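RECORD TYPE: inverse folding
INPUT: structure tokens
STRUCTURE:
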């Protein structure tokens, strides 16, 4: 059976490839963008199978209206992809309150608004799949990424709780954590006003970007199709292979640190540390 999708941030990058992949296999898509003119090519190529919608995820009323129009137009919603977002680059000390608030408005509150709008429809029809586009930066933080990582770590926690809350309604939730892809995501990131004390991190970040082997967005789109077709999709899944070894080490280091400081943890609770039997 063909599926009906609702995808935010459909005008470019991974979102555009997600939409094109779904449409190319015969699915129907409510594709959203802040400027719907950027969706004209999709309409020309796929006709009535695509519903272009003007939508800024920072506008709660617009989100409610867009979801309602998509449901009315197609009759149901099967896959909801919260893809709209952007990057923020800057050391924590460099970030202004407004820059961080704006980041959270789009990357965290945007998906929250969409989830609140779609859940009544998904419950009513007895199922659906919410896909949250997170990042490898939603699992491990890095210098100059404090604001962006904060938004994605928050999205991860929100979505993990959501998955448990809606499973009984037949609604599935998956966090997709992409690595680097051949899009303009890094180039288009907002940059905080630089302080020279952190220039060394900027140089290291630039060198790391040059060393990356970006993935093919079309391949990510094909993988997403398999994901939403799975009977039992995972709560979390990486897209790309570059971060597996790094993130395995991140988790190993966390477990080791907790083990190293376990005695202090017991003391902090007024308990006697447990000594393993010889």
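DESIGNED SEQUENCE:
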């Amino acid at each position: 059976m063909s599926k009906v999708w609702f995808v935010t941030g459909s005008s470019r990058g991974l979102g555009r490839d997600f939409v094109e992949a779904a449409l190319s296999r015969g699915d129907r898509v409510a594709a959203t963008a802040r400027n719907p003119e950027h969706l004209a090519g999709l309409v020309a190529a796929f006709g009535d199978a695509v519903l272009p919608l003007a939508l800024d995820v920072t506008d709660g009323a617009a989100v409610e209206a867009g979801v309602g129009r998509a449901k009315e137009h197609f009759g149901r919603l099967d896959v909801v992809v919260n893809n709209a977002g952007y990057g923020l680059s800057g050391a924590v000390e460099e970030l202004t309150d407004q820059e961080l608030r704006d980041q959270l408005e789009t990357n965290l509150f945007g998906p929250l608004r969409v989830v609140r709008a779609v859940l009544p429809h998904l419950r009513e029809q007895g199922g659906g799949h919410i896909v949250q586009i997170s990042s490898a930066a939603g699992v491990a933080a890095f210098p100059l990424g404090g604001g962006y990582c904060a938004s994605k770590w928050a999205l991860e926690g929100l979505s993990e709780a959501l998955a448990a809350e809606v499973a009984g309604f037949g609604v599935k939730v998956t966090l997709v954590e992409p690595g680097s892809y051949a899009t303009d995501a890094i180039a288009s990131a907002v940059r905080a006003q630089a302080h020279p004390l952190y220039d060394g991190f900027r140089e290291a970040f630039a060198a790391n970007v040059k060393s990356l082997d970006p993935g093919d967005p079309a391949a990510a789109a094909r993988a997403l199709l398999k994901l939403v077709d799975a009977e039992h999709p995972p709560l979390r899944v990486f897209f790309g292979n570059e971060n597996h070894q790094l993130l395995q080490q991140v988790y190993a280091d966390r477990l080791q640190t907790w083990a190293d400081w376990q005695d202090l943890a017991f003391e902090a609770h007024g308990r006697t540390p447990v000594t393993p039997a010889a």
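NOTES: The CA atoms of residues 6 and 231 lie 20 Å apart.
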